[in-house]
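Problem: given the chain below (185 residues), write out its structure.
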Amino acid sequence: MRVRNREWMIYTYRHRRAFEYCVKKLIKEPGLRARMLERARVHDMDKQVMYLFMDQQAAQTRHVMTQPHHLENDLPRTHDDLVETVIDYECAPYTKPDKPLNAYDFTLKLMDMGVLDHATGGKLIDIMGELGIARSGTVAEDDEGLAYCRGIGEVGEEEVLKEIIRYVAEAKDNSVVEMLDGIEN
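Solution.
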């Protein structure tokens, strides 16, 4: 049996590893680091579950509209949500060839395009300043990070499904059930 959206699930699995790497590399303040490592455990996992039941685009759209680390929605955001946004942007080039810009360059691009307002963009850039990444650059400058991502190796369905099972088993307040409400089979 082949898992639905297998390629997207592997793409997201690898992205989640890069997200965790960037949290460990960039965040030094113990409280924020602990909170972001907890977020790394569940980052994009709702999307992984939805991939089992929905086509890729529908899962992606629902994820973007229900997660405060995505700025395309009108959800209230905390400072930690914005830190998650910055880490999400910063880690993308490590595993996503289709997203080569670091957080700083990507934020500037979104602001130039008028997709991101200057107030929110400024908050993101301030966070990047706190993390020491408020500058242009490429992942090619991070030999350690590239080696880490290469070390992830081949990812199969088993690794992805183990993560999903852990996530579902640990879901608080039946959040997975709520997330799946309205999904048509």
